[in-house]
Amino acid sequence: MVLTYDVELPEESELTVQEIELSTPALRAGSFHLGKYCENANNEFMLCRLEEKDPRKCISEGKAVTACTLEFFQKVKKTCLAEFNQYAHCIDKSSGDMGLQHCRTTQGVFDGCMLEKLNLERPPFGYFCEARVHATTRPKPPVEPKAVYPDATPALPDDYEKKPARFGSRFYWMTE
């Protein structure tokens, strides 16, 4: 990536947050409930990234997503740790690709615990594919005007002579 001197990068202290130190099976085990729990923070971050087109402007939204994720896993640890560990262990050991299909029994136990103790229901199939409107308090960035270049190459005139292709048309089946 090429940078110039006028590009301002954030300080390292702005970027430093507490990391979520979990394995892939643990993240897969909690992914559906995590997505539902942190839906608002995730949507705000993704909307910022889409609108701003500059990751430096969305650092605070990214920190909010990380904080929400950390809060979620701390709550899971306090309330449903045994069920969560059993489900994550099943995902890790039951197949080579960490598929969820072999662990439906332990998933049901974990889902029941999450519903009972955290009042967090597992979202239905296809929930995260549905279109939603996200309301935000962040102001929409101004629309950049279309760039106009004064030295652009002018177009060919309408009466310009167009010679036939040297070796014929590629679309020979359309000429008849």
3D architecture notes:
The protein is elongated. It has helices at residues 12-15, 24-37, 39-52, 59-79, 81-94, 104-118. α2 (24-37) packs across α5 (81-94), α3 runs antiparallel to α4 (59-79) and α5 (81-94) packs antiparallel against α6. The protein is mainly α and 176 residues long. The protein has 6 helices and no strands. The chain has one domain. The longest helix has 21 residues, at 59-79. Helix content is 47%, strand content 0%. It starts with 11 loop residues before the first helix and ends in a 58-residue tail after the last helix. InterPro entries: NDUFA8. It is found in: Mitochondrion inner membrane. Its main location: mitochondrion.
Descriptive labels:
mainly alpha; mitochondrion inner membrane; repeat; 176 residues
Brief summary of the model shown:
The protein is mainly α and 176 residues long.
